[in-house]
């Protein structure tokens, strides 16, 4: 029975008193919400209902549905992050490569010449987007060499929300175009989980790639959570690369966003992945630089130094640091080595110039929609210094170099005209990387020295910055970008995001420097650490220790044997004069300070067991402990690290297919691409197994007869020779249990086939493994399933150590 009297008795109060209690509760909730500073808790607490509710709508008054709105007048924000770029690379900062779009932005804004990164890709990107040091957010190194120590998990915690999420919940449209490399390797497949993908880290839209590098001609790209293939516009075949596609996507997004919500500001993160290897670029760009680098890297460095002095991007008393003894003089190269080195640098220069052009197109689009004046642009020239990972003499196929295979100079000369094109996977020599890091020592990976961590930056905001073309020399770090953005758009740093208490912001705002070139720098202390290379900056001084291993080699070293250096950066812009012997007390103080900062920001333990850290058992794996793998149609773009492990062991691949009348051709299973891999496919009705050994050799076994219409069972038995890694094998083909062919494979790949190619069923996505077909070469019959049975590798401890070293080298180059 539910009469009014019964309800009164049950509640223990009169209806009138109940209404008063509800009203008081509503008022208290409203008061609590009002006392919460706007934006400090995200999402914001639900506002109290301010309308009136009666028994029907006739006796009621609705409230307004609230939506997040950016602060009045909040600017758009564009962050551009270039990859693997040196201080002396872009013309704006004295490099030989013309970069007119960076020039025009610098003339409209400010150039920062003492800006710093982490010396490596993934860590810089994590620090940039979170405003915290890379170890603080679990990204002390790349995810593929992560461990369970807090600073090295490869998993950005939810307690460090990205600026994209903060801006999105404050009324911004957000989009990400380009390179990610902050999703853990084991979470990059279709099985996810997706909570560390851009779409669940605050970006409404994502178009780009997840790994450390991409084949510019045939990239593995995603739109939001979906794998897609790059669409080449009609008429631009052979002239259209990922660099073009990313700019097109960004421009389309800007046009659409401003068409639909012209008053809503956007946050666009544009990270093209250029100028990271492979240095792929259309021939029309290559032709612009033919013969321009015949002077070699020693002369280039001297010329760049003089241009930098003339431009004023380095102080007049700056010294040019000498070439390390480990890098050969250009004049010591053979004529063929010089031809190859010059051509590889031409490709790199063309890639840089093309990248400048594409970023310029994005800026043009913002100007076209009338928003450039109210857009804060951060154009960061490098997530680290230029890459010193291309070997001493360069590579046509960097995957061969990763595996420790030397490429015959004659081979590179033979393929000279293919450099930069779809059949190459080229990287330039160490000497050129050193040259484009002018005037500093060293480069990428070497966090102890400025060649690895000092990257120039241009900031423009026409509505705010009045010192057009000004120079700024305050010492700042990539973690300072997020606080600068939040202050610029007038949004507070939240203490809680999506129910998770936030780590304190470790960056400081740079906004003060927009108005005053002579303002005292807000950052007094900053640590640096990568692969054991470490440094501590405090109040103009820096103590630095390079930890033995060279960026193009592998190995471990004794931390106690490291030699510390000391530089007065206020008087020594390039770290040319080591003052350790003159100021031992100052050095000791900074060394002690490093350990304080290292403990504070999760840098410890220092760990140079680099090869061992590539062991997959240290991280979650999708394939650990499995020996049988079954794949079904649609299983494409599976990351190599999550596919059946077929290297250095015997294995059997079995495909069940249905051949229609009239026959069928196409790929049944493939892994890798033009740089190396294998494919089992049907060609002219016959089964074919092909093994691409780092483009240096191709081994093919072809079936003796064409397949009959109807059900067919295709089996390939790969009998590995054993006795170590990278040995030979025999491949045998069977059709319906009848032997159809056999052949020798003299050499096999022992590490990775590729940096970014994938494993596919029913097609060969990306670039083709075989030269006999063009991708995707989808199978035209019916593919029911593919099974792969793998045997244990049975490798010695020495072999496993070598494999780890190769894997480590791969991760360093691919980052």
From TrEMBL:
CDD domains: PAS_like. Residues 75-489 form the Sulfatase N-terminal domain. Keywords: Calcium, Hydrolase, Metal-binding, Signal. Coiled coil: none annotated. GO terms for molecular function: hydrolase activity; metal ion binding. Residues 1-34 form the signal peptide. InterPro entries: Alkaline_phosphatase_core_sf (IPR017850), Sulfatase (IPR050738), Sulfatase_CS (IPR024607), Sulfatase_N (IPR000917). Pfam families: Sulfatase. Transmembrane segments: none annotated. Belongs to the sulfatase family. PANTHER family: ARYLSULFATASE FAMILY MEMBER, BLL2667 PROTEIN. This is Arylsulfatase A family protein. It comes from Methylocaldum marinum.
């Amino acid at each position: 029975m539910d009469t009014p009297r019964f309800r009164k008795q049950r509640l223990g109060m009169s209806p009138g008193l109940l209404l008063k209690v509800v009203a008081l509760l509503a008022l208290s909730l409203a008061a609590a919400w009002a006392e919460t500073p706007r934006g400090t808790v995200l999402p914001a607490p639900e506002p109290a209902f301010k309308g009136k509710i009666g028994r029907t709508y006739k006796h009621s008054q609705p409230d307004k549905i609230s939506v997040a709105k950016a602060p009045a007048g909040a600017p758009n924000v564009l962050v551009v992050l270039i990859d693997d770029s040196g201080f002396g690379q872009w013309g704006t900062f004295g490099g030989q490569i013309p970069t007119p779009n960076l020039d025009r932005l610098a003339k409209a804004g400010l150039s920062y010449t003492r800006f710093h990164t982490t010396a490596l890709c993934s860590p810089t990107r994590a620090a940039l987007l979170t405003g915290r040091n890379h170890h603080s957010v679990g990204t002390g190194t790349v995810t593929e060499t992560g461990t369970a120590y807090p600073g090295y998990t490869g998993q950005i915690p939810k307690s460090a929300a990205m600026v994209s999420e903060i801006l999105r919940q404050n009324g911004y449209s957000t989009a990400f175009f380009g390179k990610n490399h902050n999703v853990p390797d084991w979470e990059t497949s279709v099985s996810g989980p997706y909570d560390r993908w851009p779409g669940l880290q605050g970006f409404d839209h994502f178009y780009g790639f997840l790994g450390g590098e991409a084949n510019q001609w045939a990239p593995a790209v995603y739109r939001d959570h979906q794998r897609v293939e790059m669409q080449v516009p009609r008429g631009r075949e052979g002239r259209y690369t990922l660099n073009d596609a990313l700019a097109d996507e960004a421009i389309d997004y800007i046009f659409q966003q401003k068409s639909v919500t012209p008053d809503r500001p956007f946050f666009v993160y544009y990270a093209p992945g250029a100028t990271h290897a492979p240095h792929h670029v259309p021939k029309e760009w290559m032709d612009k630089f033919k013969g321009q680098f015949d002077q070699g890297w020693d002369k280039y460095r001297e010329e760049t130094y003089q241009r930098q002095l003339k431009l004023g991007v380095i102080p007049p008393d700056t010294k040019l640091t000498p070439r390390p003894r480990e890098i050969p003089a250009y004049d010591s190269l053979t004529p063929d080595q010089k031809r190859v080195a010059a051509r590889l640098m031409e490709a790199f220069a063309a890639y840089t110039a093309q990248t400048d052009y594409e970023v310029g197109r994005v800026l043009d689009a913002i100007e076209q929609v009338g928003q450039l004046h109210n857009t804060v642009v951060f154009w960061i020239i490098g997530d680290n210094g230029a890459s010193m990972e291309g070997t001493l003499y360069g590579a046509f196929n960097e995957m061969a170099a990763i595996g420790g295979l030397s490429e015959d100079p004659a081979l590179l000369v033979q393929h000279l005209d293919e450099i930069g094109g779809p059949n190459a996977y080229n990287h330039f020599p160490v000497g050129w990387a050193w040259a484009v890091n002018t005037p500093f020592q060293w480069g990428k990976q070497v966090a102890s020295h400025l060649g690895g961590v000092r990257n120039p930056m241009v900031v423009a905001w026409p509505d705010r910055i009045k010192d057009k073309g000004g120079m700024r020399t305050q010492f700042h770090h990539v973690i300072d970008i997020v606080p600068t953005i939040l202050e610029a758009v007038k949004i507070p740093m939240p203490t809680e995001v999506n129910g998770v208490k936030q780590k304190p912001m470790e960056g400081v705002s740079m906004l003060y420097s927009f108005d005053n070139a002579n303002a005292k720098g807000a950052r007094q202390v900053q640590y640096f650490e990568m692969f054991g290379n470490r440094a501590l900056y405090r109040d103009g001084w820096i103590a630095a220790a390079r930890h033995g291993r060279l960026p193009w080699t592998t190995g471990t070293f004794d931390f106690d044997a490291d030699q510390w250096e000391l530089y007065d950066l206020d008087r020594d812009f390039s770290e040319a004069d080591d003052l350790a012997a003159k100021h031992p007390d100052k050095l000791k103080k900074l060394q002690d300070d490093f350990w304080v900062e290292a403990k504070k920001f999760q840098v410890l333990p220092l760990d140079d067991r680099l090869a061992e850290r590539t062991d997959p058992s240290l991280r979650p794996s999708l394939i650990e402990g499995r020996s049988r793998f079954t794949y079904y149609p649609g299983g494409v773009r599976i990351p190599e690290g999550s596919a059946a492990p077929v290297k250095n062991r015997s294995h059997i691949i079995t495909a069940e297919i249905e051949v229609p009348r009239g026959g069928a051709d196409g790929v049944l299973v493939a892994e890798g691409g033009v740089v190396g891999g294998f494919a089992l496919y049907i060609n002219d009705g016959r089964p074919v197994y092909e093994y691409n050994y780092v483009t240096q050799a191709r081994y093919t076994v072809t079936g003796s007869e064409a397949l009959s219409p109807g059900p067919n069972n295709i089996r390939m038995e790969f009998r590995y020779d054993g006795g170590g890694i990278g040995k030979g094998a025999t491949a045998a083909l069977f059709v319906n249990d009848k032997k159809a062919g056999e052949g020798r494979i003299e050499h096999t790949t022992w590490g990775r086939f590729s940096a970014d190619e994938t494993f596919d069923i029913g097609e060969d996505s990306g670039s083709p493994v075989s030269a006999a077909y063009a991708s995707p070469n989808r199978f035209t019959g019916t593919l029911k399933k593919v099974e792969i049975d793998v045997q244990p590798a049975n490798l010695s401890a020495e072999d496993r150590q070598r494999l780890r070293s190769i894997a480590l080298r791969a991760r360093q180059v691919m980052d």
